[in-house]
Amino acid sequence: MGLFLCLWKCYLPDTIGNMEPRNQTSVSEFLLLGFSQDSVHQPILFGLFLSMYLVTVLGNLLIILAITSDSHLHTPMYFFLSNLSFADISFTSTTVPKMLVNIQTQSKSITYAGCITQMYFFMVFGGMDTFLLTVMAYDRFVAICHPLHYTVIMNPQLCGLLVLVSWFISFSYSLIQSLLMLRLSFCTNWVIPHFYCELAQALTLACSDTLVNHILQYMVTALLGIVPFSGILFSYTRIASSILRIPSANGKYKYKAFSTCASHLSVVSLFYGTGLGVYLSSDVSSWRGMIASVMYTVVTPMLNPFIYSLRNRDMKRALQKVLGRILYVQ
Question: Which residues form the G-protein coupled receptors family 1 profile domain (predicted)?
Fold first, then answer.
């Protein structure tokens, strides 16, 4: 809280008060160029992204319903998975609906307030995905490397605390970055060559000094990228070492241990692989960069329910019960 007050009272007003009016103007909206300028391709893009969005929302909602309705799934692993599904729905919903509206109306505009809001929630739920994947890796590490102490270590209080801390860090960083964006003034070029308000692209349009924004962005890239990824690597290194020490006679247990980690490893690989593709791209606004962004923001959240359900008997059984109830009601 002290950091927020410092930003607001000490830094933001001074910056706003010292802004020079020359070559600057107040911005009311940005233009999102999106994927295609050709109207012929717009219906195809609309149908494609609408289908992926509906599958994402429906699939993740079914995961949440299955976990909440089945008492056998009231365990730490599925508690974190339900939070991940909620974060995935919200993550996709920050970008795709606005993109669909722009495609349908043949408009590329987004209001200044809408852009800052989209940027804020994109960072919140993107950060939550990162932290939840790390927490889930830790959960698997405790379950496989310390099975006798699992219920003691991963107690409900710790699980709730891990999720609350993840939400707090995500909300805090996003709030600070959004406040720093509000202090910036923009030149006459308000065009963002992307399908959503991407932070780095928006910073390039600013006329005022963006040094603090970039410093914060680099710091949080380490916090949300390097540190969680290192934690995941450490967890799975210990898991692999523990599994390999299991005697060959216990092959069934060894297979089950590998199986419980396979889904999470697939999601981690997809999330970090596409995420690194976006942020290591030399030009995020290029076709290659935007395709990587689609994989990161749309495809990965859509595939997560399939990855977690297809290899999990308990989840399959719970989903069958939920679907059976839905069909019975209808």
Answer: 59-308
> Residue 194: left (phi > 0), alpha (psi -120 to 50), or beta?
beta
- Cβ contacts of 205 within 8 Å, gap of 6 or more: 30, 186, 187, 189, 190, 191, 192
Nearest-10 Cα torsion for 198, 90, 235, 79? 170
Residue 313 burial (10 A CB sphere; 0-12, 13-18, 19+): exposed
| 312 vs 128: which has the higher pLDDT | 128
- For residue 154, how many other CB atoms are within 10 A of its CB? 21
CA atoms of 218 and 257, how far apart (whole Å) = 37
User: Residue 254 has what pLDDT?
Assistant: 63
Give the DSSP letter of residue 285. T
- pLDDT of 5: 44
CB neighbours of 133 closer than 8 A, spacing ≥ 6? 84, 228, 232, 264, 267, 268, 271
Q: Collect all residues with Cβ–Cβ distance below 8 Å to 264 and sequence separation of at least 6.
A: 133, 136, 137, 140
Q: For 220-228, what is the mean pLDDT? A: 79
Asked if 24 and 187 touch (Cβ cutoff 8 Å), the reply is yes
Burial of 76 (0-12, 13-18, 19+ CB in 10 A): buried
Which two three-digit tokens encode residue 111?
């209001």
Q: Look at residue 278 in the predicted model and tell me its pLDDT.
A: 66
Residue 186 is predicted with a pLDDT of 80
**Per-residue pLDDT reduced to its tens digit, 126-156:** 999 999 999 999 999 998 888 889 999 999 9
**Per-residue buried b or exposed e for 268-292, using 16+ beta carbons within 10 Å of the residue's own CB:** bebbbebbebbeebeebbeeebbbb
Query: 31 by DSSP, 3-state: which?
Result: strand
